[in-house]
Amino acid sequence: MSSTADNEVDELFDVRNSYYLGNYQQCIKEGQRLKATDPKVLLEKDFYVCRSYLAQKKYKVVLEEKLPEELSCIKVLAEYLSIPSKKCGSSNFGTHLEINALKIHTYLTMYRNDLALKELKVMQDKDEDHTLTQLCSAWVHIANNVDKLNEAFYTLQDLIDKYGSTPMLVNAQVAVLIAQDKYEEAWDLLQDTAGDSEDTLINNMVTAGRLGKGNEVYNRILSQLQEIQVRGKYLQNYQEKAKDFDNLVAIYANK
C-alpha cells in the first residue's frame, strides 16, 4: 500500500502501528475513529482493519464486509483461512518494510540467522526508528541468543513505553527471559500482563514445567490451550511426543 509523503501528517500512523504491535482491537478502533477524506487513506485504513480482523480469526466479519475491488485479496485470504484443513499463517504484504519483516520471519523460521541479520541491516538503512525495524531487531537478537538478549529486551520495553503493552511484546520479552534462564521473572511477567493468547499459554507451559509448578497447574494451562488451538503446531508436536513416550513406556514395561 502507498505511504504518506514525508512532509505530510501520517493520518494512518496509529492504525498501522497498532497492527504492527499486535494490538489488533486498537487498530480497529483507530480505524473507526479516523476522520480522513482521501480515498487512498481510507482504502489503506480498511486494509489494516481487515487484516486485524483476520489476525483475531474473525473471518466472517471480513467475508461479510463490502470491500472495494482493490481489497478483494483480503476476502480471498479470509475464505482460505476460514477452512480449517487449509488454515495457515497469513502473509504480510504491503509496504517495503513489511516485506523485509516477512523475509526476516521466514529466514528465522529456516534457522538462517545470517540472512536475517543481512535483511535487518537493509531495514535499518531504510528507517532505523520504524516500529517494524525495532521489532525485527528484537526478533533477530532473540534468535541469535548470544550477546544481544538484553538489548532485545530493552528494545521491546521501549516499544511498550511508547505505545503500550500488547501480548506480542510481552511474550517476546518472556522469550528473552526464558533464553536467559530467568524462569521466575518470565512466569511473573506472564501472570501480570500477557493475557491469554496462544503464545502466552505456550510460554506459561514452558515456564511452569521449568519451575516445577506441578501437574495441576500444567494441565490447567494445557486445557486452556486445547480450547483455543485445536489444530495448532505446538499441540500437534506435544501430542506426538506424548504418544512416543507412551510407546516407550509400553515397550520397556513388557521387558
From TrEMBL:
Q: Which SUPFAM superfamilies does the annotation name?
A: TPR-like
Pfam families listed in its UniProt record: Coatomer_E (PF04733)
Q: Name one GO molecular function term.
A: structural molecule activity
> Where is it located?
Cytoplasmic vesicle, COPI-coated vesicle membrane; Golgi apparatus membrane
State the coiled-coil residue ranges. Answer: none
- Note the superkingdom of the native organism: Eukaryota
CC per GO annotation: COPI vesicle coat; Golgi membrane
InterPro entries listed in its UniProt record? Coatomer_esu, TPR-like_helical_dom_sf
Alphabetically ordered keywords of this record: Cytoplasm, Cytoplasmic vesicle, ER-Golgi transport, Golgi apparatus, Membrane, Protein transport, Transport
Q: What is its main location?
A: membrane
Give me any GO biological process, just one.
Answer: retrograde vesicle-mediated transport, Golgi to endoplasmic reticulum
Q: Which topology term describes how it sits in the membrane?
A: Peripheral membrane protein
Q: How does it assemble?
A: Oligomeric complex that consists of at least the alpha, beta, beta', gamma, delta, epsilon and zeta subunits.
Q: Which family does it belong to?
A: Belongs to the COPE family.
Q: What is this protein called?
A: Coatomer subunit epsilon
What is the scientific name of the source organism? Diaphorina citri
